[in-house]
Design a protein that fits this description.
This protein is α/β, with parallel strands linked by helices. The chain folds into two domains: 141 residues, Rossmann fold; 67 residues, Putative phosphatase, domain 2 (DNA polymerase, domain 1). Helices cover 43% and strands 11% of the residues. α8 links the parallel β4 and β5. α1 runs antiparallel to α4. The two termini are 12 Å apart.
Length: 219
Amino acid sequence: MNKKGFIFDLDGVIVDTAKYHFLAWKKLANDLGIDFTEHQNEQLKGVSRVKSLEKILDWGGISLSDEAFQYQMNKKNTDYLSCIETMKENEILVDVPKVLTFLKKEQQPIALGSASKNARKILKKVALYESFDSIVDGTNVSKAKPDPEVFLIAAKDLDMEPNECIVFEDSIAGVQAANKADMISIGIGDQEVLNEANFVFKDFSEVSIEFLKQLINKQ
């Protein structure tokens, strides 16, 4: 039986936690008297919490002491965590269970490769924790995408060579990381944004079982 390693990003691929990040950053920015738009929020996707706060302060022309900076970062995380506490299975993005169920049935190794430090908690909340053979998250990696570290660790965990792995990503940094790792990159989202991916689909409703079979059998 042919085996490939299937690696999924979390935010924007399996669940949409981006809206919760947006709400938490918006609250923080507004509390500091800074306007914060969805367009600005797009620029924070795949960016670390420290860098995100630096960008927001820069947009608002505000500087904070190290202590105040740390306080705001913690506050943002607390607000975000209180949002994800309420997550349920209905927040799984369209047809993700279809894909995971098929891969499980075909005994294909499946990993999560996410920068989120809350990945395990979120997967438990939406009852998908058991679907993954390996979970590599923000607690396991030191380098952010587009560095391929997260995906290379996941491949090793799955006992697969990088060139036998397939990555599902919604950010350009994630696609670049997959490409650098010599993996097949599949963008989930906007074709124009994710144009460096090997394949792009709007969402998993466009990913057919036939396509997955072709990936598994690709030599």
